[in-house]
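User: For a benchmark we're assembling, each entry needs the component sequences followed by a predicted structure for the full assembly. Here are entry 17's components. Please fill in the structure.
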Amino acid sequence: MTVEKSAELPEIVFPTPREILFRRTVRHKGFLIGAAILVLIVAVALLAPVIAPHDPYWQDLDHRLQNPVWYADGSWDHPLGTDNLGRDYLSRLMYGARISLLIGISAMLISGMIGTSLGVVAGYFGGRTDMVISFLITTRLSMPVVLVALAVVALIGGSLTVIIWVLGFLIWDRFAVVIRSSTQQLRGIDYVSAAKAIGCSTPHILVSEVLPNMLNNLIVVATLEVAHAILLEAALSFLGMGVQPPLPSWGLMISEGKDFMLFTPWIIAIPGVVLSLLVLAINLMGDGIRDITAPEGRS
Amino acid sequence: MSPILEVRSLSVDIPLSAGMLHAVRDVSFSVRRGETVCLVGESGCGKSLSALAIMDLLPPRARRRAELLKFEDVDLMHIGPRAMADIRGHRMAMIFQEPMTSLNPCYTIGNQLLEALRRHRKVSVVQARDRAVYLLEKVGITAAASRLRQYPHQLSGGLRQRVMIAMGLMCDPLLLIADEPTTALDVTIQAQILAQLAALQKEFNMGLILITHDLGVVARVADRVAVMYCGEVFETGDVTEIFEQPLHPYTQGLMECIPIPGKTRPGEHLGAIPGIVPTPIGQLHGCTFRNRCAYAHDRCRQSDIEMVAVSPGRGYRCLLDLEQRRRRMMEREAS
Amino acid sequence: MIAYTLKRLGLALLVAVTVSFVTFMLLRFSGDPAVALAGPDATPEEIEIVRVTHGLDRPLLVQYVDWGRRALQGDFGISPYFNQPVEKIIGNRLSITMTLGACALSFAIVLAIPMGVLAAIRPNTWIDRTALTVSVIGQAMPSFFFGLILIIVFGVMLRWLPISGSSTWKHFILPAVALGYYATPAIMRLTRSGMLEVLGADYIRTARAKGLRAGKVLFKHALRNAIIPVVSLLAVQFGFMLGGSLVIETIFAINGVGFLGYESISRADLPMVQAIVLLVSMFYVVLTFFSDLLNAYLDPRIRVK
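Assistant: Structure for entry 17:
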């Protein structure tokens, strides 16, 4: 039988990987919302010295516990009111962003280095080394993080640096787990490709498939651990074993405000909502990155 | 004898982001008691979807339409889902292609077999168990009573498929639909299972719809055949008629692709049908086979092709009959 | 089966040793317990006397081994604050924390699993989107903030529930919600994704083909399979709740082990802190073992021969 060429098969144009990623990114509402909020908060944090209306440490003792501007007795001089020592809440909020972001990112970097190193070593060498490191991970997972962090900070003394290092040395577990499995994949490819006769060479598979995959996972975990660190610092500061006064950590602001929260609920609501928004934004972005780079994981 | 199942002009549409997929179009056939009807065609030609449409087991976004879908004098298109659930597994049963994943891994074989019966009939556990053992032995499973306590993962693929068949028969259905029941099994087991099915069908006097892509299977078990392509039925007829005098160019092409004992000479090249199956999305006109057909001409692109009825149960969907095609071939060779 | 249990037991022991060792060293290195014990106004001589009397001048390793030896016999030391055996104090408070944890877990289950199932049955509808939104917001709010909000709304403004103490069952409601909601998103998402995967499985199609009614297909067949990883997650989450109860107990003035831990840290009651950390980690190890057993029980495919 002879072939009559079909007249309807159109020219198939495949989009490039970059185009695919871009298209997915702009369509992903969660990622965009998260990114927008995060950009806003980061901008405020960076510009705080310039745009904050007052010095966050200056105590205006004549205007203590002033209501925010949407109350009858509020004023635009202190748009979000003042705390029990008369400090402008809006300014403290802005400077607080710097603290949260600084601690979040620093702790993530430290824990990332620890966890990634452990994960790579465990995944690459396997065998007994893997057993030992997996045991370390299990041990770390079984320890109550808040309790241990509290204890250490309480004994050493709370400060920004101490918090960062303590958190950094405590929250590396997810990094280790994820990087370990990615590295194991990498190792597996070595043996597999030796046996298979594929068109692609091993380095090509590594570079085009495994390494990008590892990088994607790493970015997702890093994002989520920033949020994790921020929440932990807030909890520690709330309990009084974190950032010390008069620094405007949001957790500390909630703790200082809780004695007055029954009179003006805003005093805890404002830092609490902003804290939640920051964590929400980071989580949305982390989930978004995961969806965008590997949508097969989604339902 | 009147048919137990009558399908007339069945269609299934699935909305996709690229457009509406007309997966099944104008499919008609009927099944009588004790008769085996084979739906044969390539992968993706819509034969499984047709069966799922009859059972009302289509995926949620799919829509079915039919001029007539009658089973045992019940209009299946217009009964509610509860009434359909009463018929399913009871008067009409279906078994599927992948025995490895078709059984729930968390429950014993016995649990799942008994469930099939006790859903539809008021029988005691003991009675149900007896029936299950009886059927397991009928499908060729030894030590049937102890098998009831086993879990699916403890059985091989062939055994699981036999269990599926037994499960389909628990309520003594009038019609059994088997969707490629042997495709996922070893070749040696395939023949056994098919023989089992045929024997059971004769014994219980069921109607059997066997869906397959393997013409060898069709030759073995079919009484009547419907050849499907790209969602449509291209030809229907008795199995001997289809094999000895195929009326549609596609069926002819298929016959040339397989070795037929007695006809194909040793060392002879088998045929092939060049080209690929189109995807029936969006507006369709004309014959979907024309890009691969040796006899295609302009009219094949324009009109919707109807089934030409040669005799009851025998028809083909082509604008040209055998005589016209022969003339075209001669014209072609001349030019 | 026996070999497996023994292996897990050995692992648990190893974890216990490691955790207690790390905690011991951390606490000793972070500060001088003699200073903490002697009090803020103590003179250097008084601190030295305290150091010697408590054996804090010996090499660290010796101190640890001594502690470990006694711990194996059930003696976790005397709390310098209560002047009573540590294990007795903890024992009194343990049931409260366990009750709180159980209530919190129940709350999370009752909220998350039905939401997950519903979201899976109707994917990409408003139900699904609401569930996902609620879960995403839930993971962003710090638990202490949520606890405070609950206190303001339900305790003070509406006056429906008590906000401190642990005398009646009502006292556990708000803390349980505050503790449990954080686990809800993870449970809901796992239930949802598990159900979505299972609902597309072949054996569900078989169940429908048998004519089983929708409810039976959903619960007997689908959920039964989808719930297996969720059960494991629940066990682990319970462990996290026991460890994380500290903040909630402190806010709601619940006299449990978490609150005890917080106070002990403030008071530099090191034997107590040491014991509580060990206790929580042991619970976690036991719970993960338990969850593996549950897994094997629920999934016939992975049962050890």
